[in-house]
């Protein structure tokens, strides 16, 4: 009866209070995940706070709304006009857990980082629950091509228009139409660059279409991107840099956020390994290969978590701009340079 009545009415964004029967939950304290910090930190550009503390977006080709209490994460999934209405299944919830990498305990990592960096110990008490997303490699790649010389608000608009024009339509909730991310084939068409320029991507339009064609025609398509997840950092970094529009700044950003190369590290602009304390000089854009070369596997293994955690955290909290006392990565410096110069 509930399912039939819901299908008969126009689909709307749900809240936990309005339709509790269609939500599933699992234990996840805020100390392990803060939706408001993670989803708005500039890692992904496709989540919106449609209702207070309710975040809606596309994950694994399905539309979701997420919210949380102090101790639980709540999820509801929309399966379209002809889909089965009901709580998310265990398999669907698995996609959520993988997306947020919830099998990794932040409490343990925070304890370790605090033991090697007293400053981190002090600041981490105020900003907990920030973690890196494990994103689809295609979405992450082309989103970050759009990020060149850009800010989060403009990147979000570009990615949204990209999906609306080239991505498959999933469903409509209220007045919002959701689309999946475009396939490589959709982005490799002969007229794509011209269309993207009309959508406001500017010079990035050429890089989007050229990278899609290069992956399809020269590198074997999606399997090439997927196999980079297991590749050593140097190999993945070098492979990504062969794509149009991906250079020494963008490649290190892609590696951790797609979990492409497991132990990727955004090295500080000083060129020194992060542990035990990461410090950087004033922001600069003069980055090059020398800043990512010369670090050992052990240094990356120990340091990448602090470096990349700090980027997600600072994008969520732009006020953290003290370049003399905060663990910085090149991407964070770029963000702060754009915001505070």
TrEMBL record:
Keywords: DNA damage, DNA repair, Glycosidase, Hydrolase, Lyase, Multifunctional enzyme, Nucleus. One of its GO terms (cellular component) is nucleus. InterPro entries: DNA_glycosylase (IPR011257), HhH-GPD_domain (IPR003265), HhH_base_excis_C (IPR023170), OGG_N (IPR012904), Oxidative_DNA_repair_enzyme (IPR052054). The keyword Nucleotide-binding does not apply. Its main location: nucleus. Its EC number is 4.2.99.18. Residues 146-301 form the HhH-GPD domain. It is an enzyme of class 4 (lyase). GO terms for molecular function: 8-oxo-7,8-dihydroguanine DNA N-glycosylase activity; class I DNA-(apurinic or apyrimidinic site) endonuclease activity; damaged DNA binding. It is found in: Nucleus. Residues 307-322 have a biased composition (Polar residues). CDD domains: ENDO3c. It catalyses: 2'-deoxyribonucleotide-(2'-deoxyribose 5'-phosphate)-2'-deoxyribonucleotide-DNA = a 3'-end 2'-deoxyribonucleotide-(2,3-dehydro-2,3-deoxyribose 5'-phosphate)-DNA + a 5'-end 5'-phospho-2'-deoxyribonucleoside-DNA + H(+). Residues 266-324 are annotated as: Disordered. Transmembrane segments: none annotated. GO terms for biological process: base-excision repair, AP site formation; nucleotide-excision repair. Belongs to the type-1 OGG1 family. DNA repair enzyme that incises DNA at 8-oxoG residues. Excises 7,8-dihydro-8-oxoguanine and 2,6-diamino-4-hydroxy-5-N-methylformamidopyrimidine (FAPY) from damaged DNA. Has a beta-lyase activity that nicks DNA 3' to the lesion. This is N-glycosylase/DNA lyase. It comes from Physeter macrocephalus. The gene is OGG1.
